[in-house]
Amino acid sequence: MSAAQDHKDLRVGVIGLGFAGSTHLDAFTSLEGATVVALAGQEPARLDELGTSRGVPHLYADWQDLVARDDLDIVSIGVPNDLHHPIAMAALQSGKHVFCEKPLATTGDLAAEMVAAAKAADRVLEVAYNHRRRADVSFLGSTSPTIRSVTSTTRGPAGSGAPGSRGSAPGSRARRPPVADP
């Protein structure tokens, strides 16, 4: 049994110190069943501030050092878009689930590589689409094939307990709801 399986809570490493990263950090910190054990970012003062105020024990200036940890279950990515692909690929290839801020990648080909890596590793690759599991969106998804295809892109239904079933970071807010194609 790995170190990551010796405990009850899922162990999370968050990468990013800006709005997205700190939103992911606060969401996972407040989430029962998850423990943020590592935080990475390149602004030393902000890293220390967030790590200290949120009680994160392991702080890294380099995301590669966080991903290299063998005791993490989830890597949460809240960094500039061009870094989503390399971080997610490294995390998936090392056996971790990935929660990624939107957009998933900067191109469709890079996103497809990430999806293929998640499938090959049997890991969850979740994108922070904040409204995906709202009751009204779920209802619309049950009545509209277009919306259903948008809302059924993850492995587990909301509340199922399956990896990826929590949806986007709890407490986070999207600026606009999902829009179905006409």
UniProtKB/TrEMBL annotation:
Residues 143-182 are annotated as: Disordered. Keywords: Oxidoreductase. InterPro entries: Gfo/Idh/MocA-like_OxRdtase_N (IPR000683), Gfo/Idh/MocA_oxidrdct_glycsds (IPR050463), NAD(P)-bd_dom_sf (IPR036291). Residues 143-154 have a biased composition (Polar residues). Pfam families: GFO_IDH_MocA. Residues 10-129 form the Gfo/Idh/MocA-like oxidoreductase N-terminal domain. It comes from the Bacteria. This is Gfo/Idh/MocA-like oxidoreductase N-terminal domain-containing protein. It comes from Frondihabitans sucicola.
